[in-house]
Amino acid sequence: MYRAPIDDIRHALFDIAGMREFLERDLAPQLTEDLVDAILSEAGRFAAEEIAPVARIGDEVGAKVEDGVVTTPPGWRQVYAKWCEGGWNSVSAPEEYGGQGLPAMISMAVLEMWNSASMGFAIGPTLTIGAIDALEKHASEELKARYIEKMVSGEWMGTMNLTEPQAGSDLAALRARAEPRGDGTYRIFGQKIFITYGEQDFTDNIIHLVLARLPDAPPGTKGISLFLVPKFLVNEDGTLGARNDVFCASIEKKMGIHGSPTCTMIYGDGRFGDEPGAIGWLVGEPNRGLNCMFTMMNAARLAVGIQGVGVAEAARQKALEYAKDRKQGRVPGTHAGEMAPIVKHQDVRRMLLSMTVLTQASRAIAYACAHASDMARFDRERGAFWLERVNLLTPIAKAFPTDMGVDVASLGVQVHGGMGFIEETGAAVLLRDARIAPIYEGTNGIQAIDLVIRKLPLSGGEHVRGFLNELKQDAEAARASNQDDLGIAGARVLEALADTTEATEYLLGQLGAGKLDHALSAATPFLRLMALAAGGALLLRGAVASGDPARAKLAFYFADNHLSEVGALKRVVIEGSDSLIAAGDLLEAV
Amino acid sequence: MYRAPIDDIRHALFDIAGMREFLERDLAPQLTEDLVDAILSEAGRFAAEEIAPVARIGDEVGAKVEDGVVTTPPGWRQVYAKWCEGGWNSVSAPEEYGGQGLPAMISMAVLEMWNSASMGFAIGPTLTIGAIDALEKHASEELKARYIEKMVSGEWMGTMNLTEPQAGSDLAALRARAEPRGDGTYRIFGQKIFITYGEQDFTDNIIHLVLARLPDAPPGTKGISLFLVPKFLVNEDGTLGARNDVFCASIEKKMGIHGSPTCTMIYGDGRFGDEPGAIGWLVGEPNRGLNCMFTMMNAARLAVGIQGVGVAEAARQKALEYAKDRKQGRVPGTHAGEMAPIVKHQDVRRMLLSMTVLTQASRAIAYACAHASDMARFDRERGAFWLERVNLLTPIAKAFPTDMGVDVASLGVQVHGGMGFIEETGAAVLLRDARIAPIYEGTNGIQAIDLVIRKLPLSGGEHVRGFLNELKQDAEAARASNQDDLGIAGARVLEALADTTEATEYLLGQLGAGKLDHALSAATPFLRLMALAAGGALLLRGAVASGDPARAKLAFYFADNHLSEVGALKRVVIEGSDSLIAAGDLLEAV
């Protein structure tokens, strides 16, 4: 049974991500340490006692669709209602619309808990938060006034409609179109796929944000506009009007997150209303729709990274619980005729320790990214610096934790042995759920390319250099400590950071020399390299700050057992591209 | 759609695993190169045209049970009947019982194809082959005469009943019991779980091999005996008699291989027959049941390793096909307004190339293990040497390909992007199916421990040293070639083999010094290290032997992009255990 890891979350916030200094500087004046603790504790209770109990039925029954009407799994509506009542939908939302305006460090910490309890449940509200964000930053005052408050309270949910069958990673290929009606509104036509919670029975209305092209729009990504398309039109007094011409044609049968309805949405086929075309309102400038998306994309990517942290934490807890209970084999000290709990076996310990440190390193990176986004928002003087930091960390914070979510959940299955493959145990579903996170919100390959091509060159490479220097200070502080474990671990992390610097400079050099293929082919191993090195440094930072010998031991384990991969990855980054480029054409020849 | 990779399989057999010399020496006199080709080609056709088409319905419908009666998925019975008619059940079976007595290299090559087509289908007959093997080596002439022929023809299937709820990896905890009836037969009582094809509708009778304890048996593994327990008793004339007191109480709902009924079998609860107790016959000596199992365990473990190869191959083909078809984004040379197939993107190429070489390295290792078992059987003069080689290679050939099956299938999901998570695409099911193989037939952790504790010390360590020296010769030959790719790859493989030697000697030293914990905690990274180094050397052997520049490029890619991990793993093996042992106790404290 999931228990919110309040100690670990608090440690990651205060000892690693910068919450302590954030509070001390009073950057978000309403926020106190007591309030943080109260929120974490109450969120932990809600995740464990309300959401987690409906996770299994969500997987087993799944979301259903009939004639465009989606039914979520039994009990999910009720949990959503309670969740809104508890104010959880409004944690990060702007205060002027009834939100609590809390920092991302808080909203991401509680989001981790929702995802540990049920990824399929948590992803719905996550999309609404993204939609609120986009509207608040780009919509007209009229639209804001009409829509945001009810989305903040949770009375209405929001969706993001980007993908079309021919346009996934490549949004330039979008075909959905918007025709002006002459009254400032538009008629939207097109098919959108993979729309999370595109239709549901949680709320009376659904506010779709839809990317589409205006009639005279230029081709490619510079001709895409963003529209607000409500399921039901909203009257001036806020009551619901006519059904808009949008419906859910089908939902996908997926490997995991079965409770989350993944919808194919049809806009403008004439099913509803007098004439075909879903009525929509432009959000932001014409042809600038992708810019509106970009402002929320960092947040959405971090939120998906947090899903990885959440599912890894759930898998870690479940495996550890099983390993303490399940008895097989003997170790020195086992009484005659008895068996030892498998947690006593070194090979099982390796799996459990790796699950633990990979989860913690993922959390540290994700929370550090949340901290940077809070600093960009609250620390006006260094806003530009922190925005670069968010931009640098976001692809890492999306990709690494989601990869680790899969790896940790898979290790969790393995710890359970044969029982891990049986659905009843609840280990397999975590792996099935986790598998989506490296794919959506920009595949992890896209993240790696973003990191290398767009983020390393920030401030001419100086930003990433500064980041690596900060991490070096953490490692130096550990090395200079008087603790054995930390001293060795500090040396290992410094070695990993030196490798990271070498790989970074190599890639900056390739980019500078116009060798784009070499940079692109090294992107995925580079992201992993940087995440491992950063994770090692951040775990050390936490161990030093907390003075907790247990955390020092875990940082030492991470440094010893996961950081030697950094040296290997450095070689792959620097030496591996030639053979990749040479062999690549073979794939097409077959 | 799966197409049997005849060229790759043939290459692995002839250029890597030793089939060429095996034929030249006429070790299996009836076997010719033409016959090998004919078998591979016909098996490839059967796998692609008969088995593969029923794979999806097997996953979607799954096996069902009602009142102890199991129904396999629609069409599966018919495919099994055709498969037996085609003689595929008897490929490896002894000739005196109607089998074809073909070498393991052949039976494993065709088994790979059955598994590429459908793991859930292929696993059933695999168990029968194991049961035949155990009976042929250990049963009385009377039992052999009565049972084996019909198991060879496929008229009856066999099962292996080892696991009980409290006894999985640790068979010492077995509780099933056997009571002598005084007439040379026994009554068997107990519950067995995870019994693959324990009940089914393919065959009229099912021959269960069951581990149980005699009344006065010593505790632990030295008190376990093996019994033959048919579902229906068999009359002297071979016709079926009374129903025996064994039935299927339930089948498991699993993450994958849904078509394979995984049964809980109840022996002796009195449901059938005059008095409780399933009637069984002792196979082999009393209390020597585990020895009977051990003789077939190597074969069964290799067969599971082959499952990993098969599912990886299927995933590789599917992802490559998708990547050539799916268009997103642009690369240099893409026409204006068009998109490039994603196979053109370097990051996608990295995934596809890794899928390819990891599949090929897994196949090379598994086939080399099959070759060793053939040599142990046919090369009487060096039988002892080859038996050691089988023993050394088996844990590697079980664990590495099954780990790669999961990794490659997961990469396959990733290549498909969002479509990979949709079940209809057929990529996700390969990952769900693949996930069992690292668990059953001895978890991969058990394999790693077996490798380190029991296999490295063979002949005082000389056997593994000899093996590594053979691999070095392959790498030297590559380095000495005049080809650029092979020369660089040869140097990399030599470096990896030097690391492997260092790690091996370190572990032998730890074992010699009685530092068991250090050896145990390093087992899993060591197995991976050795498999990667061996895989690199074997791919080079194949590239040199075939003279095929495409194979040289792939070996180069493997050496450049996967072998640097060997150095990292060496550090984990040698340096990682201290921190693991230090941190391990934390797990119990939580």
TrEMBL record, chains A, B:
Domain Acyl-CoA dehydrogenase/oxidase N-terminal: 38-155
Claim: Membrane is one of the keywords in the record: no
InterPro entries in UniProt: Acyl-CoA_dh-like_C_dom (IPR025878), Acyl-CoA_Oxase/DH_mid-dom (IPR006091), Acyl-CoA_Oxase/DH_mid-dom_sf (IPR046373), AcylCo_DH-like_C (IPR036250), AcylCo_DH/oxidase_C (IPR009075), AcylCoA_DH/ox_N (IPR013786), AcylCoA_DH/ox_N_sf (IPR037069), AcylCoA_DH/oxidase_NM_dom_sf (IPR009100)
SUPFAM superfamilies: Acyl-CoA dehydrogenase C-terminal domain-like, Acyl-CoA dehydrogenase NM domain-like
Pfam families according to UniProt: Acyl-CoA_dh_1, Acyl-CoA_dh_C, Acyl-CoA_dh_M, Acyl-CoA_dh_N
Reactions accelerated catalytically: 3-(methylsulfanyl)propanoyl-CoA + oxidized [electron-transfer flavoprotein] + H(+) = 3-(methylsulfanyl)acryloyl-CoA + reduced [electron-transfer flavoprotein]
GO molecular function, one term: flavin adenine dinucleotide binding
Cofactor requirements of the protein: FAD
E.C. number: 1.3.99.41
Classification via Gene3D superfamilies: Acyl-CoA dehydrogenase/oxidase, N-terminal domain, Butyryl-CoA Dehydrogenase, subunit A, domain 2, Butyryl-CoA Dehydrogenase, subunit A, domain 3
All residue ranges annotated as the Acyl-CoA oxidase/dehydrogenase middle domain in the record: 160-266
Residue stretches making up the Acetyl-CoA dehydrogenase-like C-terminal domain: 467-582
Keywords: FAD, Flavoprotein, Oxidoreductase
Domain of life: Bacteria
Domain Acyl-CoA dehydrogenase/oxidase C-terminal: 287-449
UniProt cross-references to PANTHER family, sorted A to Z: ACYL-COA DEHYDROGENASE (PTHR42803), BROAD-SPECIFICITY LINEAR ACYL-COA DEHYDROGENASE FADE5 (PTHR42803:SF1)
Its biological purpose: Involved in the assimilation of dimethylsulphoniopropionate (DMSP), an important compound in the fixation of carbon in marine phytoplankton, by mediating the conversion of 3-(methylthio)propanoyl-CoA (MMPA-CoA) to 3-(methylthio)acryloyl-CoA (MTA-CoA).
Family: Belongs to the acyl-CoA dehydrogenase family.
Protein name: 3-methylmercaptopropionyl-CoA dehydrogenase
Organism: Nitratireductor aestuarii
Lineage: Bacteria, Pseudomonadati, Pseudomonadota, Alphaproteobacteria, Hyphomicrobiales
